[in-house]
Amino acid sequence: MLKLGIPSFFLFILILQIKGDDFKEEIFIKPLPPSHLYVNFHFITLVNGEESFEHSHLAPRSLGEIMSRYQVEELHLTLTEGQWKHKQWGYPVLDAAPGAELYAWFSPEVIDVDAHWKKLSSTLSGLFCASLNFIENFNTITPKMSLWPTGAQKLKQNYTSQLRYASLPREIVCTENLTPWKKLLPCESSHGFSSLLNSRMIHNTNYHSIGVHVRRTCVDNNCLDTNLEIKQTVALVYDFKIINSMDWSFRKLFGQGLPGACPLSSSSKIYIDTTSNSTYRFKLSPEPNNIVLSQRGGSETELAVYNITNSVMMNIVAKYETKDKIFVNIPPPLTFTQYVLGYGKEFGGIVTELTNNYWAPIDVVLLENAPWWLPIQLSSLRINGEAESKLIMSQYYSPGKSRQKPYHLELLLRLPPKSTTTLTIDFEFVFLKWQEYPPDANHGFYIGSALISANLPTAKNYTSLPIHGNTFDSVINASKPWYPMIFRTNGAMVSLPTPDFSMPYNVICLACTVVALAFGPLNNICTKELVLKAAGTPLSLRQKIFNIFKKKKD
Amino acid sequence: MALMRKYFVAGIVRYWLIHTDYWQTIANRVEIATPLNSWKRLIEGVYLYDHGIDPYEGDSFHESPIMLLFFHFILKKVPYLLPLIFTFMDILTAHILYKTSKAFVRLFEETQEKNKQHVAEESKTMLLNKSQLNEAPDYVLSVYLFNPYSVLNCVGMTSTVTQNLLISMSLWGAASGQKLLACIFIALATHQALYPILLVVPISILLADVNKGCNKCSYIRTLLAFVLCWGFLIYISAYIMDGSYRYVYNTYGFILTVPDLKPNIGLFWYFFTEMFEHFRLLFVCAFQINALALYVVPLTLRFHKEPVLLATVLIALSTIFRSYPCVGDVGFYLALLPLWKHLFTFMQQKFIVGCAFIITSVLGPTVWHLWIYSGSANANFFFGVTLSFATAQIFLITDLLFAYIKREFTLKHGSSRRIDDKPAKLVLQ
């Protein structure tokens, strides 16, 4: 049975290869000395052509139908827990905002983009069991400069108007999101690298982010034909403190060894960044298949490559030789941080600090996306304390409207070399209606992270794939004049003033009483005549009390 | 001379306070600056307008386009003159109120003369003499100049300063019989804050009284002039905003639908914070009718012979019940009260109202601090204070009206409260 199975399997793959559909899986592991380990999974499914989607045996049909029904050109969805620390860890392959983040470009034929967007988010909400259905007009923006499509696009078309972006910083990512995500893979979680994604282990990390990225890529250089690329990613950052030692192994990280490659994949590779080996020596076992030296944008990276072909249980182990060495962290070219200013619940400010550690100026686009309940005042924008700064090269502002539209500010800034640029913008706290507060209103409200897109002049700490690359091999020796990256700053939290939730009846009664206090006398004055009326001799209080007792005696 | 000294001192106090470090704190106080009139929002609107962004697209600016243009001009050309301009506007308001009250006093004298034959013999002493009448304008002036509510309002550089100026101008125009002037200014005030539309009624009565002749024709002419002025202003504003009427939603719409629930001294904020969603529209309508329409007709029918009293009461009631009131509005109608100094003897709740004003004015900022900054109180505390402040104002106004009808009665029937030598009391029947 088994003997018969394997050849037919290969035949099957062969058919798929002819058809042009392709599946690859990759793991990229990078130690982040001294205390963390970055593991990044990539599952790439390429579908040839546009019509063949329904006949593909590799691509998830559920996702494909969503793409074609809502005419989505490019889609990026990430569900993230934790905060990537750019200053300490360098740059991730793909950055993601805390919570849920979704952005998509719709096809230029779509006229009512907002309606499609709403439907898309609701459908994805069902597909991934995430609260994406909370995406409404009041938390959706259309970035003008920060985001650009990464896939193949027809030239001379206005893509910005077809873009929608939303982030839900409050979203909590859990197993229920991972399970449907794994179901989209051809091998699901039974074979291949995805069998390592054991929710018990991966939710035990400092940072984890799962994502789905769909785009169109060119088949060849002429780009007459396009493929649909579905890339599913998982990024994990392990804390050595949690796994209890610096030595790591697959068994320690994922609770089990690697059971081999997915039979449907055309390539299953593991890349381990061993550049830090020169300072923090560690030994890998088993020995890697080969070691690649990559020179990219003035920085050298050494990658140990494992080519997994068989389905034999395997456990990659790294053993550190020196354990207590002082590590000097050299920060990447661009670092940033965001925080909230002020005390009390009346006025506050958001501060964004951007540090350029490079010797040349860096141009960045900063996108501040404040929810409607955090009205920012553009007139209070200060860059390094100046109202009219020369650093701003271009600016876009769309004021928010309560319960309808968020505040959206985009700035193209030229960050001077070796300097920190501080942006402050003031906001006023909004008093919401009592039913608009989420459960546990005093927990606070999350502010989404700001987006920073930059074209970095150097590839130091840069791990992202080049824009045309599908797989990790494309990183090797991929020197380019610019290294584009979209960063997310850390999120923040504010505590909005709350009413007393137990009071609605009392408040309604009291306020109406006061209104009645005016209405009654005014009604009397207007409708009645003042007359003198004979009165009986009024009883004094003493007499009244006396009368009561008198009655009782009777 | 004494007059000049008053103006000078009041001007200096205002100008100095604007230049102290407390200015920012004062300009940000919830009691002084509402979303409708705050200086901060005006600056934001002008900034957006200056940068080619429609200020009415967002939710940060609720002034009329005319104000936008006016302040855009000032902020661009002479920003350093702003404190001076605000001080000057407030002093001008005081001066116009002074002149208006002089005209009003003349009106009082005339009516008193006319009704003399109806006055009971024993009440003749109650009639106002020259010196009593001449005192009133001085009191009006002093109250407006030195009332902390008005002072703080001016120091906070709120747009209520402009509004008070416009209302006083229209009252003056009415008192001096200049129909067009009155209509233009009342239309400007209405265009800015909507609620002054109530004043059309007393102003048209006043104009008819002052100008004499055909009453009905005068009413119609005034009303027509007002509608034309207002319509023209609405059109001009749209012209300023490149023909877009979107500003209407952000000015009148904002006032009427109360979307911003930031606390103020009024009744709306907590009521609509705690309102059940499906009753919101009903209660918004009820409260706005209460502020805009409910009292106009009955009060007009009852007090059409006293348009000045009608104007005072309508200004006060619309201040108490408007959606975004501030202390500047309160200060304005308090300044009109000395005109009714002769009624004070008939008022019963002066002491209670006085105490309530003082206590709430002290407690308001205190509980606000406790709620917002130290977190040891909650919204109910501030709500309680605003509620009692509103109650105090209501008591003041109803008491004033009661005092007026009691005085009327006394003038007519004498001050004796006896029927056939038996004790009797005054009742409404």
TrEMBL record, chain A:
Pfam family, one: Gpi16
Signal peptide: 1-20
Domain of life: Eukaryota
Keyword tags: Signal
One cellular component term from this protein's GO annotations in UniProt: GPI-anchor transamidase complex
One GO term (biological process): attachment of GPI anchor to protein
InterPro entries (UniProt xref): PIG-T
PANTHER family: GPI TRANSAMIDASE COMPONENT PIG-T, GPI TRANSAMIDASE COMPONENT PIG-T-RELATED
Protein name: GPI transamidase component PIG-T
Organism: Vanessa tameamea (Kamehameha butterfly)
Gene name of the encoded protein: LOC113399736
From TrEMBL, chain B:
Pathway per the UniProt entry: Glycolipid biosynthesis; glycosylphosphatidylinositol-anchor biosynthesis
One Pfam family here: PIG-U
Keyword Transmembrane: yes
GO terms (BP aspect): attachment of GPI anchor to protein; GPI anchor biosynthetic process
GO cellular component: GPI-anchor transamidase complex
Membrane topology recorded in Swiss-Prot or TrEMBL: Multi-pass membrane protein
Transmembrane region(s): 80-98, 193-210, 222-240, 252-272, 279-297, 309-339, 351-373, 379-405
Cellular location(s): Endoplasmic reticulum membrane
Keyword hit for Endoplasmic reticulum: yes
Keywords recorded for this protein, A-Z: Endoplasmic reticulum, GPI-anchor biosynthesis, Membrane, Transmembrane, Transmembrane helix
Recorded family membership: Belongs to the PIGU family.
Identification of the protein by name: Phosphatidylinositol glycan anchor biosynthesis class U protein
Provenance organism: Vanessa tameamea
